[in-house]
Structure prediction request, 327 residues.
Amino acid sequence: MNILVAGGAGYIGSHTCVALLEAGHTVIVADDLSQRKSGTLELVQRITGRKIIFHLVDVTDEAATEAVFAKYDLEGVIHFAGLKVVGESLTKPLAYYYNNLVSTMVLAKLCLKYGVERFVFSSSAAVYGANQIPFVESMPLLPATTPYGESKVMSERILADTAQAEPGWSVALLRYFNPVGAHESGLIGETPAGIPTNLMPYITQVAKGKLDKLQVFGDDYPTVDGTGVRDYIHVMDLAEGHVAAVEKLTPGVHVYNLGTGRGTSVLQLVRAFEEANGLRVPYEIGPRRLGDIPACYADTTKAQRDWGWTSKRTLADMCRDAWRFAR
Ligand code: UFG
Prediction:
């Protein structure tokens, strides 16, 4: 298939490009490179030995994006383009709503205009809010705790309503849990600008000695050891989930969790990282972080039942691959 990957130079996008190329698809990337140093796509080509077609495009720019739709006979769109620093969305809500919603609407509108039937959207477990665990796709959503999460809820709604009104259009809403790790080659991975806000990149910077110690945000949650519990998933497992989605989509709107179904606390992740890599990660307990929920993990039965997709890589793989890339 000819697949447009919007935001394909980003963390999850670039790993998905690897998985798509390895599955034999033609990949056209539209990315404004605002969140990424250039060079990532060259590394994706090196890993796969295959070519990527690249357009330097901000997908909130409808005219520039339309030129890409007009040039290729696209069969699917995977939409990763957007802002994703959850805490930052509290201080820059307008930027988050603008980028994340306009990009979704431009891409959806052009899909309908050019007859592109498959649309895969990067959603987030953030749409569940502080629901009961495990999170199941059929749950009524609770208010998201941040503008970032709310922008995902709204995008889901826009796409679901559009799919309902356009018989034949296929939409997958993929709710990611916590993607971590890097491609096994160590060539591509997560490179947050400045001081990382997510746990795994913070841990790797502490392990490298670039940061002093990890602040654990709260140890008084009702969890196994009081620290926050999340469902960490290897980014290549997540990438392979996108290939399954774009290949197996049928008309209508379909919601899928992409997680492992296992919860891991902050301290359990620190220990797993230390064991996998033979290192110490100094930490101290600090206060809770605004907007955090105590625990979340996925019910993953739907993706397994419908697509035969399930995560394959272990927590130790995630820790080893994250460290190989960071080194
Ligand atoms: N944490 C720390 N110290 C840190 C960073 C994080 O203790 O320096 C803790 C958090 O409190 C939380 C856990 O580590 O308990 C994971 O935090 P992350 O920031 O890595 O991830 P979040 O679960 O907050 O957010 C992630 C994605 C979002 C997505 C959300 C959905 O980054 O895009 O999962 O559940 F919306």
